[in-house]
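Posted in: Structural Biology > Protein-Ligand Complexes

Title: Requesting predicted complex, adenosine-5'-triphosphate in pocket

I'd be grateful if someone could produce the 3D structure tokens for the following input. Sequence and ligand are given below.
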Amino acid sequence: MLELDNLSVRFGGLAAVDGVSLRVDSHEVLGLVGPNGAGKTTLFNAISGLARPAGGTIRFNGANIVRTALFRRSRLGIGRTFQIPQPMHTLTVRENLIVAQRFGTGRVDDGRIDEILDFTSLAGKAGSDAATGLALTELKALEVAKALATNPRLLLLDEVLAGLETVGKRRFMTMLRELHARFGVAMIVIEHDIETISTLCQRVAVLDFGRLIADGTPEAVFRDPAVMRSYTGTSAGTSAETSAGTSTGGSHA
Ligand SMILES: Nc1ncnc2c1ncn2[C@@H]1O[C@H](COP(=O)(O)OP(=O)(O)OP(=O)(O)O)[C@@H](O)[C@H]1O
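-- Reply #1 --
Done. Output follows.
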């Protein structure tokens, strides 16, 4: 479905994404981890059309979309959320979904919007002001709902669980698993928490200084000493240690 070949994104002298080659198959759930500043969000920006690559190709369902405009990528089926929820202010929750759906599909389907509101547990908030009427969990749910309204085949989820407390996080993870099964989308999931990634994802890719340093099953990747060193500054622990909530949120700073 998605194939990145030697993809690079530069900010002046900084290679934020540095020669990354990676593929995601339809219906696959891929975790994307790495320390702060490793290039994860920049990679999402390149795939979704917000960042212009300095080199390499992005193939989506066979076509090279590296020069394709943002809204066209959305219409091809690439949806995303943002790390910091970005509701459209002054609009209600339902209106947010209508705008997202029109952007992503070129039309409005009220039945589909009702389905998404139900699915994301936002039906009771459909008429609420999106900027002022929502708790953090609901704002995160709205990010997912807006992305779903664009009718994605590939969903890029940028730290949608960050900041949620344990119960909210569990509920959200259940929702993401159901989403994958019910809407049949492939997903790339950026999260720092190893337990979350191991639970949600079949495969994990690790970025470090913009480079892909590992790609494999969660069990294999999180046991790789080089991987663990790169973002925690420690050597690999046992699987019990690494699945007990270890964060991948190390920093090069
Ligand atoms: N618009 C920009 N202009 C200049 N440098 C940028 C820009 N966006 C990102 N960077 C730099 O590119 C590198 C990668 O940043 P990016 O946000 O992609 O990392 P990340 O892995 O998503 O980090 P985090 O886990 O903190 O969200 C960092 O060094 C960052 O400072």
